[in-house]
From TrEMBL:
SUPFAM superfamilies: B-box zinc-binding domain, RING/U-box
One Pfam family here: zf-B_box
GO molecular function, one term: zinc ion binding
Identification of the protein by name: Uncharacterized protein
Domain of life, source organism: Eukaryota
PANTHER family in the record: B-BOX DOMAIN CONTAINING (PTHR25465), E3 UBIQUITIN-PROTEIN LIGASE RNF135 (PTHR25465:SF41)
Zinc recorded as keyword: yes
Organism encoding this protein: Hymenochirus boettgeri
This protein's record includes keyword Metal-binding: yes
Amino acid sequence: MASADQRDKLNCSTCLNIYTDPVTLPCGHNYCQGCIGNVLGTQEGSGVYSCPECRAEFVDRPALQRNRKLGNIAERFLSTRPERNDGTGISCTYCIHSPVPAVKSCLHCEASLCDNHFNTHSKSGKHVLTEPTTSFGEQKCSVHDELLIYYCPEDYTCVCVSCCLAGEHRGHQVALLSEAFEKMKVKLGNAMGTLTLKREETERKVQVLQEHRREVEGKAAAETERVSALFRDIREGIP
């Protein structure tokens, strides 16, 4: 299997994914055919074309030479790479040429990210990363259109900054969603532990009752047999 360094050499510097139909510019740099085609398309009418990597300039739109060797290597690598299946069915927003499974979603950008785009994504505080999702609207306040980052225990609801500062939750004791989640997880864990103990106790009581029922049924059967035998004796004693 290819090492991480070898894998990086197979990544297009534009889409950050394994090359798809790689082509080479006259300067020697390689790109996916679709990626460099889009870049050159944006440069139409500017009077000059340039390589996104080395900034080499071309007066005319450069001819794209198909790199068959690189394409074969990329295809061979993809065929031997274990297929990732995260079960979400959500693809990276930025991988437009071929679907790549997302590993995270950014609520600020309202975009999902694959491994490569996640590693290059901004790590600033306003970029809130979550598990892959397509429900970005559910993560925002319906009143202020801001991210829901607090939890209000008084109203049992998630709120944004504006809700706390000037909205109907002003003055309420709120907590960060992450902290509230951890506390709720501990609380639910304790509740589950209590329920487990109660279930075990109930199961023991049911077992005792079942044993008692079998004992009563056994005694009832013996008594029935005794009475039946008594009636048989009486019938036999009547002339």
